[in-house]
Amino acid sequence: MHTKSGRSFLGGPEKYLVKRFTKYVPLETYHLTLLTLVWSALVLVAGYLAQKNIDWLWLTVAAIVLQYITDLFDGAVGRYRKTGLVKWGFYMDHYLDYVFLACFVASFGFLLPNIHMLALTVILAAGFMISTFLDFGATQEFSIYHFGFGPTEIRIVFIAATILVWWKGAVLLAQVLPWFNLFMAVLLVSLVYRTQKQLWKQDMRNR
Asked: Burial letters for 19-53: b for 16+ Cβ neighbours within 10 Å, e otherwise?
């Protein structure tokens, strides 16, 4: 069994929601996990339809919120009912998180002409995931929170980006995206440097 480490800005309110409402969730843990496939498809459909009517981006916002809810409760439901699939859940939950991320970015590909910047966004996001899982393999501590940001905060960024495109159009996002990618690159380098430094110290203590 792995342990999670780190914290996010919204971790406290999330723990309250999980504790308060888990027993009312009507679906099983694996149903909640697999629903990410539905939300991913909705995001792609919304991006495609937004080419003709930008208001379809509100479907993207709804899909992000729904994916947040199902992702927040899938593990909690399994633990509460003692029906969790630990290994399957760990693999599918995190892999489908990446699928959702990729579909979200790909949906903007219908609206933005500069696909290279979007591809770089996916590469940088994958860099954070790779670092997380390599760190987990080395320490057995699973940290999905970096610099106070976790999945919830990232979803808020997704929603903000979607509303920005709906409000001001894709041109403004195209101007912001290079700076956003630069910011992500700086954070990724900082994360890798910090992680390798911590692992180095652990290795030196265990010599």
From this structure: eeebeebeebbbebbbbbeebbebbbbbbebbeee
- Mapped onto helix, strand or coil, the DSSP state of residue 49 is helix
Q: Write out the two tokens for 173.
A: 């996002």
Q: Domain coordinates of the chain in residue numbers?
A: 3-205
d(CA 180, CA 173): 10
Rounded percentage of the chain residues whose pLDDT exceeds 70: 97
pTM of this prediction?
0.90
| Token reading at 197 | 């430094």
3-205 is a CATH 3.10.520.10 domain: no
Q: Which amino acid is at 48?
A: Y
CB atoms within 10 A of CB 14: 16
Residues 139-152, mean pLDDT to the nearest whole number: 86
Complete DSSP assignment for 79-124: HHHT---HHHHHHHHHHHHHHHHHHHHHHHTTT-S-HHHHHHHHHH
The Cα–Cα gap between 82 and 71 comes to 17
